[in-house]
Amino acid sequence: MKWFKKKSADGVVAPALKATTLESSIDAGGFDFAAVVDRARAQATVGLVAADQRVVIDELHEWEDHVGAVDGLVAAVSVLEAGPGAGPARLWATFRARTKTARKEPEAFVAELAKRGDDLYGAAADAGIEADPMGAGEVTRSAAAVWSSVQAPAWPPVAAAVEETPESIVIDGQAHVVLEIDTGFPEAEAEIVDALSAIELGPRVRWVRTYRPSAVDGGQGRRSSVLVVSMTAGADRVEAVVAVIVAALSPRVRLRTHRMVGRQALGLATACGAGVLGWQHAAMTARVVA
Questions:
Q1: Which domain holds residue 272?
Q2: How many domains does the chain have?
Q3: In a domain, 288, yes or no
Q4: From its phi and psi, is residue 50 left (phi > 0), alpha (psi between -120 and 50) or beta?
Q5: d(CA 56, CA 64)
Q6: What CA–CA distance (Å, rounded) separates 145 from 147?
Q7: CB within 8 A of 162, min separation 6: which ones?
Q8: How far apart are CA 10 and CA 1, in angstroms?
Q9: From CA 198, how far away is CA 220, in angstroms rounded?
């Protein structure tokens, strides 16, 4: 069954990224600075790439606490990879526009964020994470590696062929299965770390951790996860790998692990790290499964 119908003249684009633009600027330190702008939601997402592939979860919690205190933060997302050819950890922060000008003019919004770049870099440094800002080229290549690595990097990322069923998605010959996990308690993340550490051959796994700060001062934020399991193989082989990963989790964590039924493309798009936040796309999900 082909559920996917969003296709431009250049290829198939993830619906969640279709209306976004990639804007560039120079930050206060003279670094190239890029942001993925979602004008409809008046928000923009900037990213850092870590020097080390393996980032300690406690460091990520500290980073989330620090960046969560920055004015205007909507969510902080970290994307960790495991398996053959795994790339470095990437940290993303999505901010809402704070002024009328920023809401209307993407260039002004990105220029404002560039001036506040030290807040983002400082949050990582204070958490003990060595990371560099991602320029437009790095953002584009990172997203292309997730959506379709066989196509030339572009924004938004494109694919030649996408076939999505309620439980899996195949893009240009690579099959993906996407799960969501409630990681609002420490044991869940610890178990995922152990499961991913054992992966050396076979699938590429991307763990997308999302932190949503509390709307109440002093309140605890909310953490959730998406797990993307990918292989250049049939979806049935990926299903078998997913079964092994889930079986390695404790019953408590398994009860909080669910297939993103009817939302496989959306879940994969979150791994691009470009400000795709699941709760903001509920209407899109409803249209897909209807």
A1: 5-280
A2: 1
A3: no
A4: beta
A5: 13
A6: 6
A7: 4, 12, 169, 170, 171, 172, 265
A8: 23
A9: 31
Q: What is the pLDDT of residues 201-212, one digit of tens each?
A: 678 999 999 999
The letter for the amino acid at 77 is V
- How far from the centroid of its chain's Cα atoms is residue 234's Cα? 24
Is position 286 within any domain? no
Q: Among all chains, which residue has been given the structure tokens 């809402």?
A: 96
In angstroms, what CA-CA distances link 178 with 157, 230, 258? 19, 9, 9
Residue recorded with tokens 């899109």: 284
Length of the chain: 290
pTM of structure: 0.91
Q: Does residue 260 belong to any structural domain of this protein?
A: yes
pLDDT in tens, 94-151: 999 988 888 888 888 998 888 888 888 889 999 999 999 999 999 999 999 999 999 9
DSSP string, the chain: ------EETTEEE-GGGTT-EEEEEE-TTS-EEEEEEEGGGTEEEEEEEESSS---HHHHHHHHHHHHTSTTEEEEEEEEEESTT----EEEEEEE--SHHHHH-HHHHHHHHHHTHHHHHHHHHHTT--EEE--HHHHHHHHHHHH-TTSPP-SS-EES-EEE-SS-EEETTEEEEEEEE---SHHHHHHHHHHHHT--SS-EEEEEEEEE--SSTT---EEEEEEEEEESS-HHHHHHHHHHHHHTS-HHHHTTEEE-TT-HHHHHHHTTTSS--GGGGHHHHHHHH-
**Distance, CA of 26 to CA of 41 (rounded, Å):** 23
Q: Is residue 250 part of a domain?
A: yes
C-alpha 34/C-alpha 24 separation (Å) is 4
